[in-house]
Amino acid sequence: MNADKVLKQMLLTVALIVAMPCSLMAQTAGTTDTAKTLPADSLYWLSMPLTDSQGKHFKLRDLAGHLVLVSMFYGDCNTACPIVLENLQRTIAAVQPRDNKLTVLMISLNPTQDTPATLARLGESHHLDKMVFRLSISDNDAHTRAIASALGVKYRVLGGGEINHSTRIVLLDATGRIIASSTQLGAKPDQDFLKQIRAALKPS
């Protein structure tokens, strides 16, 4: 196992430890059935609640069965986040997924300020395809940090509502495993990442 895989496993373990006390009592029989099919390194073990821009409540595991691009952002960001959104729009345009086989999940780093309404306005201002893009928030900072840790995203809240954060886009397979990622910051898609997405979209 190389260093990157060890690091990802460590980050996921830490996130699971943080999330476990908050989620253990919320597990249901349906969750148990789903868990039987999940690999040990699946992000779908994380059960922090999320709410999207339409006000719909869901959890990461609800996305199981599809490829998902996941990244983190916050609504008031005027530097890196708009670039990431542009990158993802161009990525979707380049790979042209069909039959809803690829979803883009954007999770806010600022659950105290971002709301479903503000996320909806953000999506409209960037002309995001609602059939592909899903902007969301978790319910508190602790859960947000657990998700960020699992995704390998680092961030620090500064004064004036600014958040200093790393940028990372990950590709999850149908079982929630991270199978590819990109940290390239730019409006133009990462070509190596595009190849990995296209390969994942090919029928098995």
UniProtKB/TrEMBL annotation:
Keyword Disulfide bond applies: yes
MF terms from GO for this chain are: metal ion binding
Q: Which UniProt keywords apply?
A: Copper, Disulfide bond, Metal-binding, Signal
Q: Which domain of life is it from?
A: Bacteria
By its UniProt entry, which Gene3D superfamilies does this protein fall under?
Answer: Glutaredoxin
Residues making up the signal peptide according to the UniProt record: 1-26
Looking up Pfam families in the UniProt record yields:
SCO1-SenC
Cystine pairs annotated here are: C77-C81
Q: Which InterPro entries does the UniProt record give?
A: SCO1/SenC (IPR003782), Thioredoxin-like_sf (IPR036249)
Asked whether the UniProt record includes Metal-binding among its keywords, one would answer yes
Q: Where does Cu cation bind?
A: C77, C81, H165
User: Which PANTHER family does the UniProt record give?
Assistant: ELECTRON TRANSPORT PROTIN SCO1/SENC FAMILY MEMBER (PTHR12151), LINALOOL DEHYDRATASE_ISOMERASE DOMAIN-CONTAINING PROTEIN (PTHR12151:SF25)
Regarding protein family, the annotation reads: Belongs to the SCO1/2 family.
Q: What is this protein called?
A: SCO1/SenC family protein
Originating species: Sulfuriferula multivorans
